[in-house]
């Protein structure tokens, strides 16, 4: 079965990982600007000493410069257009619009940049797909307000969202409120601004932050729907297909619990408009004091009225659950954990490569929620080698993407309503989990190393022309 004729083929990025220009034209600091580069990034964020202070004497901060998309966006979008993109998913840097996050008037210079970026997309008939908040909340909101556990952030976020929705309602149809909102299950620093020094190691704060984000998201969605009936507003989460290591009922139950917590909890609230039945069990598991969460009847009414139109999600890998620990080997994956799957190969970063798991994910999500799905991140992070003739022969990336697209096609055949596919890091950018440039995802190579050295020139990889033919054929020529 072929994909529908208006299928949104494209690519995805995030402002904090590619724009650079971290302190010009009135932009304030974001939490991403305070995240050190290197493989120990998440470990540093999880340490008790980390307090969002930028320490250039001991660390590097690659997000400050990114790939300078801020000054190269016309060149980059022209390359996306050459590949035939129908959609480009990107985010707006919150601190570029509200530098400290708590202002009442937006920074017009920041908005002017996105005016130009959106118009450049539309010039090539590329649909902008905007993530309102993508791991880049203003640093002031994490340091002065304590991150998303503070209810005041609801007002600040909704003000930010309203500015964007009102300004771009006639140019941007597709929106997502928060990037990978369920990532706080494992690392709350990126999405909630919570680290141990401001309460991130207390699960009550994590669940409180989630509740505040749910209310903020619902308010933004309802505002968007009331503003313009043509707008499509979605949620966005990580989906990790999760298998039990064996048929032991203990492991099967542990797997079910893991799936409910990670894959369903946030989606249930944002899609169904209510907390799921297993919420109380989750609270007990994590020692959460429900009374501290400040969940009011008015909040629940807002959540019920602000349900999303589609589910955007990222899919990179599957995981394996084992509670008994018998015969297992630890996974090389340092992000989502789990144990090693003996039937799958792993990427250079220990992420299990599982195209069939994407078909499973699509069927699972569509069967549970019955609303359109949008794969807004998928891809292979790898070390690319520039050959003597200047080419990058990334057949391993082509193979990865080809098999995942084949699984998408099978899911569509299964009856899943799939809107589009925007592989992650369509142009090389700074990795969110490690702050590295060497962990590359793009169809376009950017000549920068982990220390920011290089020409910053753009080069097409072998996958560039391959993806062009995929789009040209609407997914039939792989």
TrEMBL record:
Gene Ontology BP terms: carbohydrate catabolic process
InterPro entries linked to this entry: GH, GH_1_N_CS, Glyco_hydro_1, Glyco_hydro_1_AS
Active site (record annotation): 377
Enzyme class: hydrolase
UniProt keywords, alphabetically: Glycosidase, Hydrolase
PROSITE patterns: GLYCOSYL_HYDROL_F1_1 (PS00572), GLYCOSYL_HYDROL_F1_2 (PS00653)
Entry's Gene Ontology cellular component terms: cytosol
Superkingdom per UniProt: Bacteria
EC number: 3.2.1.21
Pfam families: Glyco_hydro_1
Any one GO MF annotation of this record: beta-glucosidase activity
Annotated family: Belongs to the glycosyl hydrolase 1 family.
PANTHER family recorded: 6-PHOSPHO-BETA-GLUCOSIDASE ASCB-RELATED (PTHR10353:SF122), GLYCOSYL HYDROLASE (PTHR10353)
Record-given protein name: Beta-glucosidase
Gene of this entry: bglH
